[in-house]
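In response to the reviewer comment on reproducibility (Comment 2.3), we provide here a single inverse folding case reported in full, input and output, so that an independent group could reproduce the run without further information from us. The structure tokens appear first.
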């Protein structure tokens, strides 16, 4: 990349991506379910092609016949197609009707930023972004005074804290199960104790909630629990309201929103009544004029409530020691340029590169701690074929720094700019060894503390990682063979039959004699949504066993006791291309107790990553 920032190209890429996102995603309504506990809140069962990304569709709109009729509140992180919306009952779409889901215009802040730095050169400050690689590889000149021990941190976690103290931009590499959120919590607690204001950002509301709880726990762990209002969780919707109810001191922003919403509802109710009265009065009469004055007063009251809400939110944010938010909400609401001393960014692999010039510019010279895993999935790919748009929206900051493989990561690791958390406690040792050898150069170590789970009574061997070979298999185990006219391009009924037989045997026998969470992962939506989803619904599940199905992209951040990774077609280029390492890493590292890979051994021997897995378990 040139040493001069390409402002015009950057602006063009943002405008191009904005136009594509504005088109939204078409869907068909399959079911509508109301929520008696939340007025105007409904769950829509939808059928659509593609994947909803929370970072894009958070607070998006439901559009019918070109008119926005509701707001997207939340959606399932699996393949079920359930979207929770807020809308008036009279606007509810009927079953079978077509709607369009459009993302909130979160690129507006990037467009405004690009226009501003082009029109006002004095605002430009992209040298830090351009020289980031060289800066990270330099040894910091500052020598910090020694601190006391941190008994709550393991060695690598303590090293991460020391490195972020002595660098103004540091990278925390947290593979699955290594306590990344735990470590970030203690880093935030450290800077809070130093009197710093901390901004914590992540990609989704669920990820922000995890970070929020980790910070709260860390502050309590070191003997300095958070007081009410010290941490503000900036969100319209909480993904874990039950946990927040147990942590009432984290609810100041939510309580403020609820108070202002109640005031707004009351004023709107009175306004509706006055307008009803007005419609029955004679135009031009004295009573009509008085009713109009009352309506004008209520409209002004609503305007004042909105301004009061903005003022009280601004006051709350300005006094908080720690603010936690999604990246998109932060940029959209303009508090990235607030008076923060430290910016912690989590799940960095899923943040588009286009965000970073804006975020770094608005944050000035603040200290950054960037957390994530370069081996996990990248941002949702742009539908634009323009190379410039793909450069800014398809890659993350790790790719920008050349850290797409371990060889690219190694210079930063050796320079101390990136600290690896290498002790994991999620995966059974056999699973960890395979994941470590395939993706982390053997550096990832650890085991679970609990006893291993045996599923031998369900016909599965006791190894932590096993392969179920589909070569020569003909039995479909309950699946009806599809006629040629209905064959799906990315589906395999043989592998699906093998998986479902094993899942059914586990469900019926539960040989482990304990609660089990089973996750079936497929790399293709055809297999996950059109083959597995309907069949899993037929299982007679008790209280002890749960079964979920997901594509690889939808399961990042999740985990399960038993993972079935159905390769569907091991010879597919999708599983063999250079960047497929991220798909394999995510799928394999979701498993806690047992990883079951299903596919043709013969085909697996020919693939780069599938053959590496076979060698790792040999």
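Designed residues, in position order:
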């Amino acid at each position: 990349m040139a040493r001069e920032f390409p402002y015009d190209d950057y602006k063009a890429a943002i405008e191009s991506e904005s136009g594509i996102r504005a088109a939204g995603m078409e869907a068909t309504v399959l079911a509508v379910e109301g929520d008696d506990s939340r007025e105007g809140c409904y769950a829509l069962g939808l059928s659509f092609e593609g994947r909803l990304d929370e970072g894009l569709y958070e607070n998006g709109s439901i559009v019918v016949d070109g008119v926005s009729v509701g707001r997207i509140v939340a959606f399932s992180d699996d393949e079920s197609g359930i979207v929770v919306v807020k809308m008036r009952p009279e606007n509810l779409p009927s079953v079978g009707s077509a709607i369009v889901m459009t993302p909130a215009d979160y690129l507006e802040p990037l467009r405004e930023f690009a226009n501003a730095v082009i029109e006002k050169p004095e605002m430009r400050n992209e040298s830090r972004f351009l020289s980031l690689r060289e800066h990270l590889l330099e040894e910091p000149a500052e020598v910090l005074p020694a601190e006391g021990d941190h008994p709550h941190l393991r060695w690598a976690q303590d090293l991460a804290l020391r490195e972020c103290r002595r660098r103004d931009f540091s990278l925390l590499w947290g593979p699955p199960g290594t306590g990344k959120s735990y470590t970030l919590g203690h880093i935030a607690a450290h800077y809070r104790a130093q009197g710093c204001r901390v901004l914590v950002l992540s990609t989704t509301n669920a990820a922000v909630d995890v970070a929020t709880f980790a910070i709260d726990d860390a502050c309590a762990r070191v003997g300095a629990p958070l007081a009410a209002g010290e941490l503000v969780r900036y969100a319209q919707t909480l993904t874990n309201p039950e946990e927040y109810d147990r942590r009432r001191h984290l609810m100041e922003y939510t309580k403020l929103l609820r108070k202002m919403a109640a005031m707004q509802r009351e004023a709107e109710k009175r306004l509706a009544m006055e307008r009803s009265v007005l419609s029955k009065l004679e135009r031009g009469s004295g009573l009509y004029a008085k009713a109009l004055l009352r309506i004008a007063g209520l409209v002004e009251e609503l305007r004042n409530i909105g301004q009061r809400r903005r003022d009280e939110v601004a006051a709350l944010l300005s006094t908080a020691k720690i603010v936690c938010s999604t990246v998109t909400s932060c940029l959209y609401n303009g508090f990235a340029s607030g008076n923060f001393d430290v910016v912690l960014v989590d799940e960095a692999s899923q943040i588009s590169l286009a965000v970073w010039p804006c975020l770094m510019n608005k944050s000035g010279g603040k200290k950054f701690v960037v957390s994530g895993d370069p081996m996990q999935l990248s941002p949702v790919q742009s539908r634009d074929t323009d190379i410039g748009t793909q450069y800014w929206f398809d890659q993350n900051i790790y790719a920008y720094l050349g850290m797409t493989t371990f060889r690219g990561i190694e210079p930063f690791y050796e320079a101390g700019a990136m600290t690896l958390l290498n002790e994991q406690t999620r995966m059974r040792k056999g699973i960890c060894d395979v994941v470590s050898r395939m993706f982390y150069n053997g550096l990832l170590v650890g085991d679970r503390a609990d006893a291993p789970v045996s599923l031998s009574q369900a016909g599965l061997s006791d190894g932590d990682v096993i392969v179920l070979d589909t070569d020569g298999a003909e039995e479909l185990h309950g699946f009806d063979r599809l006629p040629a006219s209905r064959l799906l391009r990315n589906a395999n009924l043989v592998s699906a039959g093998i998986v479902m037989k094993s899942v059914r045997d586990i469900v019926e026998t539960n040989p482990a004699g304990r609660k089990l969470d089973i996750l079936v992962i497929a790399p293709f939506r055809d297999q996950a949504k059109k083959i597995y989803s309907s069949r899993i619904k037929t299982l007679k599940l008790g209280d002890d066993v749960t079964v979920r199905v997901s594509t690889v992209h939808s399961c990042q951040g999740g985990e399960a006791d038993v993972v079935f990774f159905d390769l569907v077609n091991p010879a597919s280029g999708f599983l063999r291309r250079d960047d497929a390492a991220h798909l394999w890493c995510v799928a394999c590292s979701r498993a806690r107790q047992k990883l079951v890979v299903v596919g043709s051994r013969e085909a697996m021997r020919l693939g780069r990553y599938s053959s590496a897995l076979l060698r790792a378990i040999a």
